[in-house]
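Need the bound structure for AR6, inputs here:
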Amino acid sequence: MKAKIGRSVLELVEGDITEQRVDAIVNAANEGLRGGGGVDGAIHRAGGPEIMAECRRIGRCPTGSAVITTGGQLPARHVIHAVGPVWRDGAHGEPNLLAGAYRSSLQLAEEHNLRTIAFPSISTGVYGYPIDRAARVALRTVADYLKGDTRVELVRFVLFGRSAYDVYVQALQELADRDEAIQLVS
Ligand code: AR6
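Answer from helper R.:
Posting the output first, comments after.
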């Protein structure tokens, strides 16, 4: 599914983020940038040790923000490591922190002149954020960003498995129904 927002495209696909040929893929990282399971494990395995070496030099990344490294051997040139919140009950600032992780990633991409960026569904694996709620926050944050003055041309959400993809499709449809700046194109 695709939507046009301003001059940019927001796209949803089902797939593996490590295979994306874009300027940057986003990692669902932890504050210590130590690597782990899920997308993080897959990215470090596919990209090789250069990525972890840079993460060690950077050190830490607070929840709700992001840092950038090389893409190592990945098809993507860069990895943006974003740290989403651990879900507690939704009353501990989780939506704002999740929005912050997406927004910081987009701002970093902008600063580095990157035009195409792929996101996973941050926080919805090990960190336990309910995916329907996370999808609404993620899509709203990215859509609002793309309405502004940006050189980012493409934001692709790469959803792991059919059910995650379906949740994002539903959330994007609902968002587009209420916001005429979001034009579904296919
Ligand atoms: N491509 C795209 N999405 C994927 C892939 C992949 N290759 N693999 C998993 N997903 P998670 P979090 C989906 O757990 O919840 C790590 O240990 C997965 O199905 O990767 O933010 C870190 O080091 C889920 O929907 O990230 C942190 O400690 C989504 O990606 C912690 O987990 C996010 O799941 C971060 O937890």
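Comments: The chain has five helices and eight strands. The pocket of AR6 is lined by residues 16-18, 28-30, 35-40, 42, 84, 120-127, 158, 160, 164 (CB under 6 Å).
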